[in-house]
Write a structure and sequence with these properties.
single chain, about 260 residues, alpha/beta, Rossmann fold, 2 domains, seven-stranded parallel sheet, 8 helices, globular, binds nicotinamide-adenine-dinucleotide
């Protein structure tokens, strides 16, 4: 299916690796003009080159830290200057550190809100004026299965993503008349360095090996497997498509059936 987004300008943040990278690769494969970022300039440039080689489309790699509003402002300026106004935005940031209520220090809460919630708010504020003018836009936020089913060892992530989900649902209604869709994609368990980090944390707590934790994750999943960033990126590309114009304000799980709730 032609997704109708060839030539569209797409910004995917926190995307040198993992799920952001998976989204960038799929959008580049659809012919989008993609900008990616990570905190490390060399890593962003190298990932951009690799995606570009694979897709045959030029990809821009920029250094920006999603914890810093100033970096986000500069990132948007760099993208505008090099490519133009983003028409597709995928918001992402590294996840907050794992921890329980007992292990989480009070000063960590505000940092998590800044990283996971406010980075998306700043990015969306930056791109919506031009999307409104054009009468077309796609906003996709990478959140987590934890917004439906909080994860005990991820207190900060559970809290910040719940706030982001409320923000997204509210603005989806407000932006719909402007042809802008706003959706969240909720990863379950995909093989990325984040999952290695979480497996190491649980392994330490449960006195097991990280490999044993990953095996447990796989056998607990109805698909008996772990997702690949490309599975996730394919769902993001569809949400960015022209065909998805009537799909907004939704939280869509990409989890191999792991979530057991009805809605
Ligand atoms: P990852 O660690 O594999 O990749 C994170 C990417 O973000 C890297 O490119 C890294 O350079 C970049 N990054 C990290 N901190 C950044 C910052 N402050 N500013 C800019 N870039 C930054 O992680 P992932 O698995 O791709 O996860 C992406 C998001 O999805 C995270 O918020 C994670 O918590 C969430 N998530 C992932 C899974 C999963 O299965 N992998 C499940 C649920 C939620």
């Amino acid at each position: 299916m032609d997704l109708g987004i060839h030539g569209k300008i797409a910004l995917v943040t926190a995307s040198s690796r993992g799920l952001g990278r998976g989204c960038s690769e799929q959008l580049a494969a659809e012919g989008c003009r993609v900008a990616i970022c990570s905190r490390d300039r060399a890593a962003a440039k190298q990932a951009a080159e690799e995606i570009s080689k694979k897709s045959g489309t030029a990809v821009l790699g920029v250094a920006a830290d999603m914890r810093k509003a100033e970096d986000i402002r500069r990132l948007l300026e760099d993208v505008r200057e090099a490519l133009g106004e983003p028409e597709i935005l995928v918001t992402n940031a590294g996840g907050p550190p794992p921890g329980t209520y007992a292990s989480t220090a009070l000063e960590e809460y505000e940092k998590a809100l800044n990283l996971t919630l406010m980075s998306a708010v700043h990015l969306i504020h930056g791109v919506t004026p031009a999307m409104k003018t054009n009468g077309w836009g796609r906003i996709i936020a990478i959140t987590s299965i934890s917004v439906k089913q909080p994860i005990g060892t991820l207190l900060l992530s559970n809290m910040a993503r719940a706030g982001l989900t409320g923000f997204l649902k509210t603005i989806a209604t407000e932006l719909a008349p402007d042809g802008i869709t706003v959706n969240a994609l909720l990863p379950g368990t995909h093989k990325t360095s984040r999952i290695d980090q979480l497996a190491a944390f649980r392994a330490d707590q449960e006195k097991k090996t990280p490999e044993a934790i990953i095996d447990e994750m796989m056998s607990a999943n109805p698909s008996h497997t772990i997702g690949d960033p490309s599975d996730f990126g394919a769902a993001a590309a569809f949400l960015a498509s022209v065909q998805a114009r009537y799909l907004t304000g939704q939280n869509i799980l990409v989890d191999g059936g792991n979530y057991r709730g009805l809605l």
